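INTERNAL TRANSFER SHEET
From: sequence group
To: structure group
Subject: Chromatin structure-remodeling complex protein RSC6

Please process the attached sequence and return the structure record in the designated field. Keep the field labels unchanged so the import script can parse them.
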Amino acid sequence: MSFNNNVKSTDALSNINILPSISKFILTDDSENNKLIQNYNMLVEKELELDTVINKKTIDLVNNSVDIINEKIAEATKSTLRIFVSNTAENQPWQQGENIDINVKPSWKLRIEGKILGNDDFLFSDMIKHISISFVDFDPSSLKVDEDDLSTEITWNHIDNHTVKFNGLDIKRFGIQNRKVRISIELKNVKPSEFISHIVELNKKNGIFKTYGTTQDLINLIVEHILSHDLIDHATGMINLEKDANLYAIVNKNLSTDDKPITEISLQELLQTSIKECIQPLKPLVFDYEIRVDKESTFGENCYDVKVQNPMEQPQLQQQKLADLKKAEHSQYLLQLEALDKEINELNAKNTKILSELNTRLIPKYNFYHELSSQKNPVEFLSQYIEQQAKINKEIISQDNGYMEDLVRRSDYYVDNEDQLKEQISLLLQNREL
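Return from structure group:
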């Protein structure tokens, strides 16, 4: 995946060669001790290191953005499953009053129902895989006459009852006492596993906020964490657990007090231990409830909302939503990369301008004074230099306006400076130099 398809490529500083006019002054015989050379080479090396870091961070950004996008997609394609837990009481002694019918047994009915908010096309049974109801702290000796034995757990399984469709599950028993129950519901289409706290902490260290995943996700996470934090002893090839508290805790999780802690381990053994210890099935939904026989109904008193995969999303709509979310995220990162690219272009332009000024302005001056200082006869050198500059200026004038001797002779300079010129000419005549 790439975010910078539209970003223009730029020349890195390390790809810009030193101009020959500059290099001949800094590339001396003693180049190893030349500070300019050392600083320039250091600058090139640091930029290469910076490029490596930027590339790695870009890859991490892409990987993390994919996880974030997937999280948003998963959240956007979820609906709310509302679960109601209630019970009704029938023929209880307080309901019959004085006219007690001995042929009618008091009973209660536990009802577990649910629905997808905003969608009546899917039933509660379409969303659940397993339901179990156990009676907490049940004592068989507490049973009264005509009460049902509640020592056996009540279960419903979708595999065994896939033909049965319902929005509510009713469990009816005979009894005149309040009973505490624990209801466990396993939903369909949930992610297969979640990470323990130590793996979650490893994720946070690497800028990843995931609490669940597959076995392959776990392996990738551990390997990347080991490499990025340099946990491998290059001499032995073993992983140094003392450098990372979370990996140390995972490996020594089941260690007895008499055993010596493990401080180094091979990658294969670490992965085997992690797969065994760090992945656990997602816990089912658990509700504690008290069946009340002293009330006619408890409907509406206990309600729970659970996020589930949206069953009303058609595959085409899911694909379109996924594409839209990815496009929005990619556009955001693309704008950031374009801004960085623009800044790099500006810095490179400044660098090129500085090199150009150095080459066109400073180097000629340095060259002139260097040659002047090395001359045995500076006067002769200056005379030649002035003559050379005069020729250059004459060529420039001829290129701009065309050189005409008569026009030069009639220049305003001679009129404006007539007295000074007469004086200079008189001196030349007296000295016989004219």
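Handover comment: Residues 1-77+313-360 form one domain. Confidence is low (pLDDT under 50) at residues 1-16.
Transfer complete.
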